[in-house]
Amino acid sequence: MRKNGAIIITGGSRGLGQAFVRDALACGHIVATCSRNETAFIRELRAADPDENRFCWRALDITNGAESKKFVKEVARRYGAISGLVNNAGYSDGQLLTMMNEELLQKLLSTNLEALIRITHFVAPYLLREGAGSIINIGSISGKRGFSGMSIYGATKSALDGFSRCLARELGERMVRVNVVAPGLIATEMADATSEVEKQKIIGLTPMGRFGTVADVVGVVRFLLSDDSAFITGQSITVDGGFTC
């Protein structure tokens, strides 16, 4: 993949997104990221590159279509091209469907699905213009296996598989690839909300007998951004130590 175009990584201020940003920069890519709030990690990178030669961050609520479009256009203008997109930003919350309120329903749908489709819509023309590129949608095993209280979250994540397969068909002729990476329970801040009893249950059901690490997921994303995966598109790669096998 060309290194002189920017890779956009949404939600790059913490957790998996932070790891994706750090690794992409280490691989020599130009990286543009966005998040609602600036974190110490973002401040560190901005201080190291005040002229935004290889890294830029913007405060952005990705559910805001007008601002998302403005962000994508600014990245393309600043760096001349866009070479990849990692749709990482998302919202995780669970509730039994019978207890679901309208506010939570709309937040899950608008953040995890509508915003992702919209920003992909804004980025895709730039990738088609280059005749190359990689789009990676970060899914979840909740979209592949049932979990009580996660029906809406799981629906937004399973929808990514259908979206990605169909989009891979649309963009493949111009060498633009679209894939899903679906992590299991990964040792991040998000996993801290899982009870110890539930964590041990998950480990017990995982053939490899451990939680996933951030590095486990980062390696797959790095591969899909690279030319080593040039003939892989329309796929969903599950990174869960065998939990769903």
What does this protein structure show overall?
With 245 residues, the chain is of the alpha/beta class. It has a single domain (6-236), classed as 3-Layer(aba) Sandwich (Rossmann fold), CATH 3.40.50.720. 44% of the residues lie in helices and 16% in strands. The chain contains 7 helices and 7 strands. The chain has helices at 15-26, 40-48, 65-79, 102-130, 151-171, 196-204, 214-225; strands spanning 6-10, 30-35, 55-59, 82-87, 133-138, 176-183, 236-239. A 7-stranded parallel β-sheet has the order 3-2-1-4-5-6-7, with helices on both faces. Strand 4, helix 4 (102-130) and strand 5 form a beta-alpha-beta unit. Helix 4 (102-130) runs parallel beside helix 5 (151-171). The protein starts with 5 loop residues before the first strand and ends in a 6-residue tail after the last strand. The mean pLDDT is 93.
Summarize the structure.
This is SDR family oxidoreductase. The chain is of the alpha/beta class and 245 residues long.
Classify the helix fraction into a percent range: 40-55%
What's the N-to-C terminus distance?
A: 32 Å
Top-tier CATH class: Alpha Beta
Taken together, the total number of domains comes to 1
Order of helices and strands: EHEHEHEHEHEHHE
Low-pLDDT parts are none
Structural class computed from helices and strand pairing:
alpha/beta
Instruction: Report the count of strand segments.
Output: 7
Average pLDDT taken over every residue: 93
| Main β sheet profile | 7 strands, parallel
Spatial order of strands in the largest sheet? 3-2-1-4-5-6-7
- So what's the overall shape? globular
Strand content: 15-25%
Q: In angstroms, what is the radius of gyration? A: 17 Å
CATH superfamily: NAD(P)-binding Rossmann-like Domain
CATH topology descriptor: Rossmann fold
Number of DSSP helical runs: 7
User: Can you tell me the CATH architecture?
Assistant: 3-Layer(aba) Sandwich
Organism: Janthinobacterium rivuli
Protein name: SDR family oxidoreductase
Family: Belongs to the short-chain dehydrogenases/reductases (SDR) family.
